[in-house]
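Researcher: Next entry in the queue.
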Amino acid sequence: MEKADTKESLDRVRIITELKLRGASRSDIIEYCRKEWGIERAQVDCYIRKVNEGLVEEAKRDTEELFAEARAKNNIIYERAFKKNDFRTALAANKEQSELCGLKTIKIEQKLEVKEKELDISSLSEDELRQLKAIQEKIEKANNIINNDIDNARSE
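Model: Structure for this entry, 156 residues:
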């Protein structure tokens, strides 16, 4: 069997994506590809990897968009409630915002960071140190977001 061109490969990835999303098993997909295109398991596995990578990227994009939309809607609810002196709703919106931003997780990470400072970090690898730095940056970013939201609410 000769090698598929780019358009044909993209069509195959699209078809395999549809099969996978309809619940086809790996063996069903392999059988389909063998009958339709005359390709073997190893090549089908390459297509399946491409499908999985595409689905992961799409999920990441969707998650970011959904987070941004939820956060914006929550801000509107908070602002309207605060302006109407509906502090119960404002508090609920603030709590939801905290959960959206992962502040419970951040609080746990902060506690871990404090404990980390008590430990000797000289034995950590460069990668582990980078991970710790990334966690610290996330905590700082979330704290800045919260402080800005609080400042904005107070100024209104």
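Model: The mean pLDDT is 81.
Researcher: Noted, moving on.
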